[in-house]
Amino acid sequence: MKGAADGLLVIVLALAIGLWVFNASKGEVEERPAFVGPSSILTTAKSGNETTGKKWYEYLNLKKIKSDPVPEENRSIYRGLLSITRNNNSVRNSDAGKEFITLSYSANASSSITLTGFALESDVNKLGAFIPNAATELSSTTAGAAPLTLAPGESVVIVTGASPLGISFKETVCTGYLDAEVFVPSLSLMCPDATQSWQSYAAQKNVVDGDCDAEVATIETCEQFDAIPESVGNTCASFIKERLSYDACVATYSAVDGYDLGLWRVYLGLSKELYGNVRDTITLRDNEKKVVDFFSY
Known about the structure:
Helices cover 30% and strands 16% of the residues. The protein is α+β, with helices and mostly antiparallel strands and 297 residues long. The chain has 3 domains: 33-67; 82-173 and 258-296, Sandwich (Immunoglobulin-like), CATH 2.60.40.1260; 194-253, no CATH class. The longest helix has 25 residues, at 2-26.
């Protein structure tokens, strides 16, 4: 009896397995690699087997493309490379001069992108505006605005209103001298350190000035002087005039590594707000009117 029971059990198991295989073959099973989670990725990497993890992420990327709400024929070639930063507060300001969005260009992009002529649209207000030219440098000795070209890894703040300077421009270590508080958002305060600048200047002039050492130590980052303090000597006065201003900073540091901050300030020049205060969908389109990115809130 025991032998017969064992034989019956084997038959039942065989039938069950056969039925499962038959049913699986009838349905369409989506091929996808085994899941590799964050913890097991480290294991596969250490063992040298990165194939499964790579295939999984390729699969996820494919699923993302398939689920993209933008029809393929309407997708820009820059979709996934140039994106709108999701910030609800910056687009809900009713003052055009304080309403802004930020675009970021992927550091993984293979080439630069010309942004001039791209358009921003508001679905709620049924308004749109084209991105204008911008200047790479704010100086009387350089050319004016030209097509805005973003390098991989760069960003651009796009303000709806007019520029306090009458032009769109690129931030550098010197733009903090341009009354930073006038701008929304405020300009980056990355001006060269005044003490280090003075030490370099004094070494070039071969001078020692303890009073100027003390004076310069009190200078804040990007601080400018409307008038040179009467208490300083001639060398210190010359230093303040020749180094601590926007034009002087450009003349001294424009060829130094790190001068360019990789951030643009662009102004659409509108007199009223572009985006909805409560809800909206902001769409960025390229020169072919195809969707680069959109942001709903």
